[in-house]
Predict the structure.
Amino acid sequence: MVTKPAKAAPDTARRSEKSRRAIYEAALALVGEVGYPRTTIEGIAARAGVGKQTIYRWWGSKADVLLEAFLDLGEQSAREAGASDQEPYAIPDTGDLAADIKAVLRATVDQLKDPRFEAPARALAAEGVVDEEAGRRFTSALMEPNIQLYVDRLRSAQEAGQVRPGIDPRIALEFFISPLAQRWLQYTGPISYDYTDTLVEYALYGLAPR
Amino acid sequence: MVTKPAKAAPDTARRSEKSRRAIYEAALALVGEVGYPRTTIEGIAARAGVGKQTIYRWWGSKADVLLEAFLDLGEQSAREAGASDQEPYAIPDTGDLAADIKAVLRATVDQLKDPRFEAPARALAAEGVVDEEAGRRFTSALMEPNIQLYVDRLRSAQEAGQVRPGIDPRIALEFFISPLAQRWLQYTGPISYDYTDTLVEYALYGLAPR
C-alpha cells in the first residue's frame, strides 16, 4: 500500500500553480466580458483549459474563484509597484500623514486605470449594487482589509497629534476613498493625482477658514 | 376640415396623464425587478396596460422613459417632504452652512431608504457601472442638477467667508455626497442622520487639529 504524500511532488505543484493561474485569468477575463450573472464555473473551466472538477476541488463557487483572482491581481500589482512581499498593502508611516495618504491614493488611481483590473472590477461592483449579499461579500473580502489600513494609519496620526482626538477614523477615511470611488463608479468627474492630492489637503485642513 | 387643437381637450389630457403615470410606475417597478438589460419598452407597455406605440410617441428609448420616471419620483418625494413646487431641490441658505447641508443630507438619507426608490435606483446605478455611456447619461440627468446645487451653495458660503477662498466647490461637495453614495452602493457602512451630520462637521473643520 502506498501512503498519500504529505506534500505534492514538485511536478504536480508546478502543474497546479499553472492551472490556478489559468483559472484566475479566465475568471477575470470572462466576468469582464459577459458580466457576473452570466459567468459560470463551466465557462471559466473551458476558457482556462481545465476540467470543471479541478475548479470545484479548490473553490466552492464562482464568487470564491473571483474573490481569490482579485486578491491575486492586487498582490501582483503591489509587487509590480515595488511593495514588499510581506506587507503588499501597508500604508507608509513616515510621520507625514498628508504625504503618506497621497502616495497610497496615487497607487489607487493607477490601479483604477489598469485595464487588467477595470472590466472585471466593474462587473463585480455592478453585481454588488443590485445583490446585497454579494455586495457585502465583495466589500468584506476586497475592501475591508484596505479600509482597516486607513483606520490604523489614522489612529497612529491621532496618537502623533496630527488628527483631532474626537475624530472617528472609520468615518474620516471615507474622505480619502469615497470621492475617488464615486468618480470611478458613477463618472462624476475625472480621476488624477492632482485630484486625489487635493482631497487629502481639503480633508485634513477642512473647508472652513482656520 | 377640423384643425388640430393647440391643446388637447381636458379628457384627452387626463387620459394622457393617467397613461404617463402608469408608464412611469411600470418602468420603475420592472427595472427594479428584472434589471436594466432585461427591461424593454414592450414589457413596460404590457405592465402599464398601454400600447407600445403610446410609449414610442413620447419617448425614444427605455433610458428616456426611466430617466423621466426617476425625475418624476424625485419631484414627488420633494413635494411630500414639503418643498415648494417652484424649487423642489433648492438647498436652503439660512446663512448657517453646516445646518443647511445637514438638512439636505438628511433628506437624501430618507430618499435612499425609500423602498419606491431603492430597487430601480440600484438597477440603474449597476448598469451605469458597467456601461460607461449609460452611466454618464444617468449621472448627467439625475445627479448633475443636484451637484450644481451644492456648487452654488458652497460658492455662496465662500462669498460669506464661511468657506476658504481657495477651495474648489466642485471637489469639496464630494465630501458631503460621496461617502454616503459609497455606503449605499458598496455597503461599506450603515446610513443614518448621525452619520451624515458627522460628515458635515468633519468636512467643514477638517481632520487636523486647529
Chain A has two domains: 11-66, 89-210. The longest helix of chain A spans residues 132-159. Chain A touches chain B through 52 residues (CB under 8 Å). Residues 79 and 86 of chain A are 10 Å apart (CA to CA).
